[in-house]
Amino acid sequence: MSTGTSTSIDLTTPFQLDGRVAVVTGASSGLGDRFARVLHAAGATVVAAARRTDRLESLAADLGERLVPMTCDVLQDADCERLIADAIALDGHLDVLVNNAGIGVPIAAEEEPIAGFRGVIDTNLNALFLLSQLAGRHMLERRSGVIVNLASVLGQVASAPIKQASYCASKGAVVNLTRELSVQWARKGVRVNALAPGWFESEMTELMFSDQSANDFMKRNCPMAREGAPHELDGALLFLAGDASSYMTGQTLTVDGGWVAR
User: Fold this and answer.
1) Closest of 156, 41, 27, 28 to residue 97, by C-alpha
2) pTM of the prediction?
3) Domain membership of residue 74 as a residue range
């Protein structure tokens, strides 16, 4: 029989974000809207950023205090600079950056205009780097901070027969950029990880879910034979954003129903 003193284990505090400031880009719809709500529910002051101001204001009206809407086009460097500066100015610090903004349009590689390809790279990769750099400079000074990049299962495997060369290229680059930033900043208190969702319904995946043959393809090839529900990313996001993942950096956490394990 044990005679030692029992020690309680705190399983909730590592997932709480009270007193922290978080920025979520692409927060006007889909996963970004959900991410803003989840971080807010965990106690963070959330700066919700996107181009569609009306949707951000609706989100702020819904959540109330600690949800700060900020209009931002991530393709505009000045907007990115203002977003990070204004977020820091709220309480003197920025603790979490969630790089969620992204685009992708299915098109055959031989038909995709180079301007379209460049546009996807600019949004999904270049803007993500700039925001990480801007937030990272502040976090490095404080020797504290977390960056969560939105990758995708299509940054880990090919998408064909769904044809998305530019999207796959951008998300594959996000995975390796995450590794590189994490190693450069690991000894300076800043952690960088990526979250890679599988098939979740959103504006960007609307065609996939509205087309019956595409929907059947997804369910046939997913080991769990279904799409992900919005709440099934909540735990992964909180894990990466908070102290529960304090010894984890440079990793891509895949939540995909087994898609890349096939």
Assistant:
1) 27
2) 0.94
3) 15-251
Which residues make Cβ contacts (< 8 Å) with residue 134, sequence separation at least 6? 80, 81, 84
User: Residue 2 domain-assigned?
Assistant: no
Q: What are phi and psi of 45, to 5 degrees?
A: -80, 120
Count: domains in the chain: 1
Closest Cα to residue 200, out of 142, 119, 256, 240? 256
Q: Specify the residue for token string 């997932």.
A: 15
Q: How far is residue 167 from each of residues 37, 53, 139, 233, measured CA to CA in Å?
A: 26, 26, 29, 21
Cα–Cα–Cα angle for 43, 69, 19, nearest 5°?
25
Q: Is 167 a catalytic residue?
A: yes
Q: CATH number of the domain that 188 lies in?
A: 3.40.50.720
Considering the domain boundaries, does residue 122 fall inside one?
A: yes
E strands, 184-257, in order: 190-197, 252-255
pLDDT digits (tens, 9 = 90+) for 78-132: 999 999 999 999 999 999 999 999 999 899 999 999 999 999 999 999 999 999 9
Q: Catalytic: which of 25, 40, 167, 202?
A: 167
Q: Which two tokens mark 240?
A: 């990466």
